[in-house]
Amino acid sequence: MVGNSIVEVLERVVVPKNKQYIYLRGNGKGRTAIVYDECSDNNSESATFTVEANNFVAFGITFKNNAERGLPNLPRNQSVAAKVAGDKVAFYHCGFYSPHNTLFDNKGRHFYESCYIQGNIDFIFGRGQSLFQANGRNDILGSIAAHNRKSADDSSGFVFINGKVYGVGEVYLGRANEAHSRIIFANTYFSKTISPSAGATGVTLVTQGEDDCHGPGSDLQNRAEWARQFSKEEVEPFLSIDFINGTEWLPAYY
Q1: Measured between alpha carbons, how far is 128 from 151 in angstroms, rounded to an integer?
Q2: Residue 122 a catalytic site member
Q3: pLDDT by residue (tens digit) across 112-168?
Q4: What gap in Å lies between CA 108 and CA 122, rounded to an integer?
Q5: I want to staple 143 with a disulfide (CB 3.0 to 4.6 A). Which of 6, 162, 172, 232 is the partner?
Q6: Where would I find the Pectinesterase catalytic domain in this sequence (predicted)?
Q7: Residue 138 lies in a domain
């Protein structure tokens, strides 16, 4: 990759389990992209980029699925941009784009810094233990995040900190895919696109809520009955890389 040229790799890419300690670098998320066009009723099969290996780092790359949304023969039409299934995986200055189910944060400890994620309908989902310092944009009504935590003893969760959420229409902050779903937004800007009800109702075991968020979508009136406002003591364990044991594996330059 030379100079200021824009490079697109038009294929599906998989980093398998036996290829550890890979560092994938591009010229920036606006100049280097891995792009494919695939939709399926299976999230894994539709993914443009899949990382199954541990100890993986990507820097300055966009991952994009260009599949058309709403195909008649594929009503669920899952079109994943990236599936992250390895442990100790980090993305820096990366972009993720898809019309549906953008980022499959499947499992493991993950870190996203200065990333941009755009999509619809639970467009960040999975059961990962992940810290996001990222901006997100929605296009139609759905949820920003849907987390699959099945037990109170499970250390996983999605934590969003120091980012921005914006888009068109309305979007819920989170949806509980399992009884113990954990989604936390802290010091995050919410545009008016945030639906005040925050998500589905009638869920009592989830840990979903906010701390010190701001913007026109941060008005707490009409939040779902289970949505929480955390105290500083409650939220503190989630607000640093210690939540993902990051001091043990994140690159030294972080």
Answers
A1: 13
A2: yes
A3: 999 999 988 778 999 999 999 988 877 656 788 889 898 889 999 999 999 999 887
A4: 19
A5: 172
A6: 11-246
A7: no
Q: What is the pTM of this model?
A: 0.90
Structural domains of the chain, count: 2
pLDDT in tens, 3-57: 456 778 888 999 999 999 999 999 999 999 999 998 888 888 899 999 999 999 9
Task: Give the span between the Cα atoms of 150 and 147, in whole angstroms.
Answer: 9
Separation of alpha carbons 176 and 209, rounded Å? 12
Q: Which is the catalytic residue, given 87, 122, 139, 211?
A: 122
Distance CA 31, CA 20 (A): 26
Distance CA 64, CA 103 (A): 10
Contact yes or no for 199/192 (Cβ under 8 A): no
HEC profile of the chain: CCCCCCEEEECCEEECCCCCCEEEECCCCCCEEEEECCCECCHHHHCCEEECCCCEEEECCEEEECCCCCCCCCCCCEECCEEECCCCEEEECCEEECCECCEEECCCEEEEEEEEEEECCCCEEECCEEEEEEEEEECCCCEEEEECCCCCCCCCEEEEECCEEEECCCEEEEEECCCCCEEEEECCEECCCECCCCCCCCCCCCEEEEECCECHHHCCCCCCCCCEECCHHHHHHHCCHHHHCHHHCCCCCC
Residue with tokens 């009504």: 141
If you search the block for the tokens 């980093």, which residue do you land on? 15
Are 100 and 2 found together in one domain?
Answer: yes
CB of 81 closer than 8 Å to CB of 61? no
Strand-pair category, 49-51 with 164-167: unpaired
Flag whether 34 is in a domain. Answer: yes
Chain Cα centroid distance, residue 53: 18
